[in-house]
Write a structure and sequence with these properties.
heterodimer; A: D-Maltodextrin-Binding Protein, domain 2; D-Maltodextrin-Binding Protein, domain 2; 13 strands; B: mainly alpha; MetI-like fold; about 75% helix
Chain lengths: ~425, ~290
């Protein structure tokens, strides 16, 4: 009786143990192991920009004899993976970090400052880089990477609809508005109810990405989200309320833009149902593939007291814990990408090197060069390590204002309270 | 070694694989979560100081968390009873031994095998203000074109309708099995006593279906208090926090803001609430013991 039982027990253990061990011993693949001469480079360029980047990287490999393992991770999950790799190991040698995410990583000390590399690199002329964009990659007095590009938003407009509405200059070509009055006038003339059901089916304008559109508006009115030293909320200041009210008025009072609920504004622009939109330069490639759309770009009109346009930047960074020999290789890639950022610009980006901006090849890129005029006054999201954390609160306030759920004042007061709580925490 | 000990050992050996997986992937992480919830735990933080119950204290003050609790309760209200009513009605209809029963059973059950992501993407198109089939037919009838997912009043009910469609088939099968388990004699006896269809349902079907009802209601309540995918995919918690649920709030705190300590505290509060509710519901619906045995 005893033997069979024991045998059964032994059998059970014998079958199960290996299964358990193999499960329990599964370790994270050691992807940190640095292969000599192979650089690991992470970014989120999943669109046509990924193909552009791949071409540049291929050329880098040919020119230097180094190998680059490029991993493209969709932006939606990119920062999860990057954050975990920076916290627990496995980070690549070079990675792209948006300027508005940089402060958080810098503050938690997981990125390597590059000031020493810049000063040691005699071939690099820092004066060739636009100082205000370079500053977007600075935190606490240290430079945490080199911006590959700047991507401001500008005004896209439909040339055909403009010509049909008689919005043309003396040369007979579509003329984009430059002031609020011109903008409202143009938008009114472009908004049409063609099927007579009382609802416009063609709009002069549409808000696309509410957050970035709103940052452009408040910045033009002299407003900001945080106070100057980025310690407290300043979101319910009068300038912001005024700017937000203007945006809401475009929907309810001037009736030139649809309510941003369930309306795919960008698709509307692509299909000619929206005549103007304020969007990032990176949306260019989606227009290029649109058949039969006559589009052009111009700087954002002046709605407020001064010129301003939201912008972002892809900054090329390195993790804090990188051995010196890897740092040298990583820097070579960063330098190469910066030197060749004119190729990168073709896919819908703007280089930040003065020499490249003057290049005839760049001047021939008509939308890029139009948006590049905004570079002197481009506005980034606040460079606070709480930037990601406060974002949902102003998103909600903008949405509530434009959908008419709350008045701009109420919505911004509520956001002020919530952002105030976040800023009060260390 | 006595025979009893041996048998016990054998039993443990056989459950060992499951037990090990259970401990490694459920029990241990759950305990670890409690530990994390007592710390200021930022994923990138160099230090993770112990803060005691500070995270829980902060939750009491956090009006967004309260909002998320209310939203989750609202979702439960919109789905638990109505959803079970739909399942029960479907089961009753199928129990009438209709022709093509297997076909209907399959059709009603089909949505259950879909993942929430697939379901949500299908319904995003149905609900689309501009291109959705719902608004298409509404406007053909001269009706309005509501922004189903973009207006604060409609967003949560829209998610609830979708969730009922998605989950009704599962409970339907359980109810159908329960109905099939009720002997015909009871109905015959009731009929002889002159009970009509409604009376038979109230006095025969419902009491004898109590175990199935209890099971389905408890499971639906637990499921709906953990609602996440619907609002994560369709609304992101908006518009204006109207579909921000507790699990979504926990997810955003933990995985967008990387504040793991606070997120774990949210999880533990939810755990306590669900546990409490389940106990209450069990007491309410279970009733007398002999019913449970039936």
């Amino acid at each position: 009786m005893m033997l069979p039982t024991l045998r059964r027990t032994a059998l059970a253990i014998g079958v199960c143990l290996p299964v358990l061990l193999s499960g329990g011993c599964l370790r994270q693949a050691p992807d940190t192991v640095a292969e000599p001469g192979v650089l690991r480079f992470w970014n989120g360029f999943t669109g046509p920009d990924g193909a552009t980047m791949e071409r540049i990287v291929k050329r880098f490999e040919k020119d230097t004899g180094l190998r680059v393992k490029m991993q493209i991770i969709p932006w939606a999950t990119y920062y999860d993976k990057l954050t975990l790799s920076l916290a627990y190991g496995g980070a690549p040698d070079v990675f792209i970090c948006h300027a508005n995410r940089l402060a958080e990583f810098a503050r938690y000390d997981v990125m390597r400052p590059v000031d020493d590399l810049i000063s040691a690199d005699e071939g690099l002329d820092l004066r060739d880089m636009l100082p205000n964009i370079l500053a977007a990659a600075r935190y606490d007095g240290k430079q945490f990477g080199i911006p590959l590009d700047c991507h401001p938003q500008g005004l896209y407009y439909n040339e055909k609809l403009f010509r049909e509405a008689g919005l043309v200059g003396p040369d007979g070509r579509a003329r984009p508005p430059a002031t609020l009055a011109e903008f409202l006038d143009a938008a009114r003339r472009l908004t049409k109810d063609t099927d007579g059901d009382g609802r416009p089916d063609r709009w002069g304008f549409a808000f696309t990405w509410l957050r970035t559109n709103w940052i452009t508006f408040i910045s033009q009115f002299g407003g900001s989200i945080l106070n100057e030293d980025l310690t407290r909320s300043a979101i319910n200041q009068p300038a912001n309320v005024e700017a937000t009210r203007l945006m809401a008025d475009m929907i309810t009072r001037y009736r030139i833009a649809p309510k941003p609920e369930g309306f795919d504004s960008w698709m509307g622009f692509r299909q000619g149902r929206v005549a103007m939109a304020i969007e990032g330069i990176y949306m260019l490639s989606s227009l290029e593939e649109q058949q039969g759309l006559a589009y052009a770009g111009a700087p954002v009109p002046q709605f407020g007291r001064r010129m301003a346009a939201w912008g972002g930047s892809h900054v090329m960074c390195m993790p804090r814990k990188l051995p010196d020999d890897r740092v040298r290789l990583a820097w070579r890639l960063i330098r190469y990408l910066s030197d060749n950022s004119l190729d990168w610009a073709e896919g819908g980006q703007i280089p930040i090197r003065r020499s490249l901006l003057k290049d005839p090849r760049f001047r021939a890129m008509r939308v890029q060069s139009a948006f590049a005029r905004e570079l002197p006054y481009v506005v980034f999201e606040p460079a606070s390590h709480k930037s990601t954390e406060i974002m949902p609160f102003y998103d909600a306030a903008i949405e509530a204002s434009l959908l008419g759920i709350q008045s701009p004042q109420q919505a911004l007061d509520e956001a002020h309270r919530r952002i105030g709580q976040v800023m009060a925490r260390p | 070694m006595t025979q009893r000990t041996e048998e016990r050992l054998t039993a443990y050996a056989f459950i060992a694989p499951y037990l090990a997986l259970f401990i490694a992937f459920l029990a241990a992480p759950v305990a670890y979560g409690l530990y994390i919830s007592l710390h200021d735990w930022h994923v990138l933080g160099q230090s993770r100081p112990f803060v005691g119950l500070a995270n829980y204290a902060a939750l009491l003050q956090d009006d967004l968390f309260h909002r998320a609790l209310m939203n989750t309760a609202y979702f439960a209200l919109l789905t638990v009873i109505p959803g079970n009513a739909v399942s029960l009605l479907l089961a009753l209809a199928l129990n009438a031994r209709v022709r093509g029963e297997t076909l209907f059973k399959t059709l009603y059950y089909l949505p259950v095998v879909l993942s929430v992501a697939v379901t949500a993407i299908i319904w995003r198109w149905l609900y689309s203000t501009e291109f959705g089939i719902i608004n298409h037919y509404l406007s053909l009838l001269g009706g309005p074109r509501p922004a189903w997912l973009n207006s604060p009043a409609l967003a949560m009910p829209s998610l609830a309708v979708m969730s009922i469609w998605w989950g009704a088939g599962g409970n339907m099968l359980i109810y159908l099995a329960g109905l099939r388990g009720i002997p015909d004699e009871y109905y015959e006896a009731a009929r002889m006593d002159g009970a009509g269809a409604l009376a038979r349902f109230r006095h025969v079907t419902l009491p004898l279906l109590r175990p199935a009802l209890l099971f389905c209601l408890v499971m639906s309540l637990i499921g709906s208090s953990q609602v996440f995918g619907q609002s994560y995919i369709l609304t992101g918690g908006g518009p204006h926090y109207s579909t921000l649920t507790v699990v979504l709030y926990m997810y955003q705190t933990g995985f967008s803001l990387y504040r793991m300590g606070y997120a774990c505290a949210v999880a533990y509060v939810l755990f306590a609430l669900v546990l409490g509710l389940t106990v209450i519901q069990y007491r309410l619906v279970a009733g007398r013991r002999e019913d449970m045995a039936a």
